[in-house]
Amino acid sequence: MAPNHQYVTVAPTECVRPASPNSGPVTVEVISVRSDEPEDARGGGDGSTDDDIIIQCPYTVQLRAEREGGSDGRVYTITYAVTDLTGTKRVDCKVYVPHDQSGRPAVEGPGPGYEVTGSCNGGGILVGPVTRQPSRETC
Ligand SMILES: [Ca+2]
Ligand SMILES: [Ca+2]
Known about the structure:
This protein has strands at residues 7-10, 16-17, 26-35, 53-56, 60-64, 74-84, 87-97, 114-117, 124-126, 131-132. The chain has 139 residues and is mostly beta strands.
């Protein structure tokens, strides 16, 4: 995603996908969302904005598309609890905000970052069974 300080909505269907037709209904809940940068770092580039991470229960996340000007790009990590007939798994989904448009990917770390914990008290049903899929790059 481009660092324009706007919110981007991330749905779990972008990180999880059907496993087999027979896994039964799947519920998904946001457990936590982590950023590898402070919410409002000193200096330019991150727009002096708070609430960069907003969890909308049960499984939607709004992430602000920004990063520190003097760092190496921001990486958000969304952790979902995904439950189907085979049990509950934790699935991490990475969302990258590159520092610039040069094509260099955002690098996780060095921190300090912070984490927002969800308090959704249960997941919502996602249509179709899901399984882990590799992280994606958003631009
Ligand atoms: Ca911010
Ligand atoms: Ca970084």
